[in-house]
Amino acid sequence: MSLTINSTVELLNGIEMPCLGLGVWRAKDGQETENAVLAALQAGYRSIDTASMYRNEQGVGRAVRASGIPREQIFVTTKVWNDEQGFDNTLKAFRNSLDRLEMDYADLYLVHWPVVGKYKETYRALEELYDQGLVRAIGVSNFNIHHLEDLMGSCRIKPMVNQVEMHPLLTQKKLFAFCRKEGIQLESWRPLMQGRLDLPLIQQLAAKYGKTSAQIVLRWHLQLGVVTIPKSTQEGRIRENADLFDFELEPEDMNRIDGLNEDQRFGADPDHIDF
C-alpha cells in the first residue's frame, strides 16, 4: 500500500480528506495550540481537528494563517458541542466557530456526540450549512450503528465521516464494516490508547520493524483505510507520529493487531453520555 504524508481519502461528495491529521483536544489556546499546529504543518500534516468544546479554535486559526500555507491546502475540522445542539443553536454555534477560526468556511463540520432528541435537528443545520457552501463536508462523531441508521432514515445528505474512538483495544469492526458499506469514512480519535503502548505484541512489532510502538499503531490505522488524528503538543512527537511512510505492516501482523481487541474504551460510551 503506497501511502505518503500527502495521501488522502475521497469522501462521498468527492472531497479529498488527508489520511493523517493533528488533533488538538486539551491543547491550551494560545501559544501551546499555535506551536503544535505550526509544528504539524511544517512536518507535512495538512489536516487539523478542533472543536468548539476544545476552546482553542482561535489558536488553530492563528497558526494556519502564520504558516504561510494557502488556506485551501489545509483541511480544518471543527464540531458542534452538546449544549449547542438543535437547528438554530447549531447555525449560531457554527458562525461562532468560524469567527474564532477567522475563516470563511470549514472543511468538515461534525455533530460531536449523538445527543438524544437533538442530533437530527443538529444534523439538519449541518445540511443547511453545506447547502450554503460554508462547509465542504459534513458528518458525525461518536455515532454507533443505530444512531447512523436513525439519522439516515431522515437526512437528505448522508454523513460523509464518522469520527469515533478506535484503536487496537477497540477495533470497532462492526461499525467499521457498516460505515464502509455505506461509504462513510471512519476517522479515529484517541488512536494511541492514552499512551497504553506497552502491549507486548505492539512492542514486538516495534522491534521487528525498527519503529516506535506509536508508529506501529498509527500505521495499522492507515493500512485499514481509517483516517487518524493523533494528538500531541510536542514537536518531536508530532514529527514522530508522521514518520509512518517508509514501512508497511505485513498482513499477518495487521491481523495480530486486530486480535488485541477487548472492546475497551478510554472515552465515553456514545450510548451513555451525560454531558
TrEMBL record:
Keyword DNA-binding: no
Keyword Repeat included in the entry's annotation: no
Pfam families recorded: Aldo_ket_red
Residue intervals passing through the bilayer: none
Source organism, top-level taxon: Bacteria
Residue span, NADP-dependent oxidoreductase domain: 20-262
Keywords: NADP, Oxidoreductase
PROSITE patterns, sorted: ALDOKETO_REDUCTASE_1, ALDOKETO_REDUCTASE_2, ALDOKETO_REDUCTASE_3
Family named by the database record: Belongs to the aldo/keto reductase family.
Protein name: Aldo/keto reductase
Species name: Cohnella silvisoli
